[in-house]
Amino acid sequence: MKFADPKNDLAFKKIFGSSKHKNILISFLNSVLDFKNEKTIVDVELANPYQVPKIPDLKETILDIQASNKNGEKFIVEMQRKDLGNFTKRSLYYTSKAYVEQLPKGNDYTSLKKVYFIGIVNFEIFSNKSFISRHLIINKETAQQDLDDFEFTFLELPKFSKELSELETILDKWIFFIKNAQDLTLVPHEYRTTEDFIDAFEVAKQTSWNKEELKVYEYMALKEFDEINALRTAEEKGMKKGIEKGIEKGIEKGIEKGIEKGIIEIAKNLLDILDNETIALKTNLSVEYIQSLRESYLKK
């Protein structure tokens, strides 16, 4: 059995952004945001449900997940595999954009609902040791969350190192699934008791995908591979150029040092026969430097 890599943009959207399997996204959101009791999400409305994008339109296709609950609160889930820089700024942009777009023409600010941003990244961006970090707007003096309409949660996959036998929470299982599903050949028994996980593995099973989905999936995987290779080539070229430049600079510096050393030796040889001013004139060294050479010479 071959499972798709959930870190692939298309696979992630197909698994977590399907209107047929909203239970998968609901379980994921509740586990990430630690929603329990009255805060538990029971249903979501997807703003952009999964559809197979066409390869020529991929540049214009938005593959993140946007949803809202029955209270109108907004949820943005973004999977970022490569560190392209400024991901935190992009998260601020996406969140503020989703917030502003709620505002009706009459500027009724009371209608604005909270926006939650969840960023899953396959690289490290913060100094915290935990794979999950929550970011709120806090009053510096009181440590109270007085402005509570924005909340950011980041999941850094490289910091998650648990094995199957160590998975304790629903969140642990979701992160392990996202990070490792493509390496599995069977649904682990740790996942077989929960319908949400069974559905997630079923959706990730590539044998159930149509030709168009597989084509786009492979295209995205190859595109990413090409980008990584291009970056690696650029780095290698930059390194080679840097080494060559360093060698060239080193040679130049060595020649300069050699010439300088030769001039100093000439100056030393002239100390017995010429005065400081004349030696300085002949060698282009300063009178002060010639005097220091003379003093060193006399000490010997």
What does this structure look like?
- There is one protein chain.
- This protein has helices at 9-16, 22-33, 87-100, 170-180, 195-204, 211-270, 276-283, 287-299, and strands at residues 45-46, 65-68, 74-80, 115-121, 132-137, 147-156.
- It is an alpha/beta fold.
- It folds into two domains: 9-209, no CATH class; 235-299, no CATH class.
- The protein has a six-stranded mixed sheet, sandwiched between helices.
- α1 runs antiparallel to α5 and α7 (276-283) crosses α8 (287-299).
- The model has no long low-confidence stretch (mean pLDDT 87).
Low-confidence stretches: none
Order of helices and strands: HHEEEHEEEHHHHH
Helix fraction bin: 40-55%
* Structural class by secondary-structure content: alpha/beta
Strand order of the biggest β-sheet = 1-2-3-4-6-5
**Structural shape:** elongated
| Fraction of residues in β-strands | 5-15%
Number of domains: 2
Give the integer mean of the pLDDT values. Answer: 87
**Number of strand segments:** 6
Rg from C-alpha positions? Answer: 32 Å
Major sheet attributes: 6 strands, mixed
* Total count of helical runs of at least 4 residues: 8
Distance between the termini: 85 Å
Indicate the topology.
Elements: H1 9-16, H2 22-33, E1 45-46, E2 65-68, E3 74-80, H3 87-100, E4 115-121, E5 132-137, E6 147-156, H4 170-180, H5 195-204, H6 211-270, H7 276-283, H8 287-299
Parallel strand pairs: 3-4, 4-6
Antiparallel strand pairs: 1-2, 2-3, 5-6
Helix pairs in contact: 1-5, 7-8
